[in-house]
Amino acid sequence: MKASEVRKAFYTSIPVMSGYIVLGIGFGILLRNAGFGVLWAFAMSAAIYAGSMQYLGISLLSGAAGLLTAAAATLVVNARHLFYGISMIGRYKDAGRYKPYLIFALTDETYSLLCGGNVPEGADPNRYRFFVSLFNHMYWILGSVLGSLLGAVIPFSTAGIEFSMTALFIASLTGQWMKRSNRLPALVGLGSTLLCLILFGPERFLIPAMLVITLALTLLRGRLRGREARE
Questions:
Q1: How many CB atoms lie within 10 A of CB 28?
Q2: What is the tens place of the pLDDT at every residue in 200-223?
Q3: How far apart are CA 23 and CA 178, in angstroms?
Q4: Residues near 212 by Cβ (< 8 Å), separated by ≥ 6?
Q5: CA 193 to chain centre
Q6: How many angstroms separate the CA atoms of 193 and 207, rounded?
Q7: Quick one: CA dihedral 155, 161, 165, 168, positive or negative?
Q8: Nearest-CA neighbor of 105 among 13, 216, 203?
Q9: In the 8-state DSSP scheme, what is residue 190?
Q10: What pLDDT digit, counting tens, does each position of 13-41 carry?
Q11: Distance CA 212, CA 207 (A)
Q12: CA 153, CA 163: separation in Å to the nearest integer?
């Protein structure tokens, strides 16, 4: 392992750091207000590591939801990760000992950093992706623990704090939009999502939107690859 690989992975993860720490703090505060202490915050962030699902998990814990309800909610909320995983098969197939953790740690923001396949010159791809994933995971745990500790000593109004996850998704999209000249995938995603939102409503649009996006990008794969090659 080279120190330069760790350093490069850290620099790559910096855009996620501020977002994850702030979002984690919000989660920790909400969890503390629901009556669950710092050990719960650490355990959920270390073992579950799914921002939107952890926010929903607070309601499930508070309402004493059953196992089947929790499992169904998790499947619906995190179904998008199935599509992330499919698109990363080629990059992760030779990851060896890093593969289990890379699969576990593939969050929305980590995916946005790694999906382009750009690895710094001279870095081992698998180690580099591992450390990017690890740094992001550490930021989330740190934020959650800090939020729980702050929530124990400082009174907070939690009104609207759940919007912080949406804000991070918007920031991630904006970063990708500004960095890439080929914006067709983003436009396909936005258009498909809006269409499914209109057709299926806010409670049921997520999975249909992911299916439409996957189908559209699969059909456009040849065109997208040709454009990337020209660039």
A1: 31
A2: 888 777 778 877 877 887 777 666
A3: 23
A4: 192, 195, 196
A5: 18
A6: 10
A7: negative
A8: 13
A9: H
A10: 998 898 889 888 888 988 888 888 899 99
A11: 9
A12: 23
Eight-class DSSP state of 118: -
CB atoms within 10 A of CB 122: 10
Report the residue count for the chain.
Answer: 231
* C-beta separation of 92 from 128 below 8 A: no
Nearest of 91, 96, 139 to residue 115 by alpha carbon: 91
Among all chains, which residue has been given the structure tokens 């660039």? 231
| pTM greater than 0.85 | no
The SS3 call for residue 178 is helix
Q: List helix spans (H) across the chain.
A: 3-33, 38-47, 51-62, 67-77, 80-87, 89-92, 99-104, 108-114, 125-153, 163-179, 184-200, 206-219, 221-230
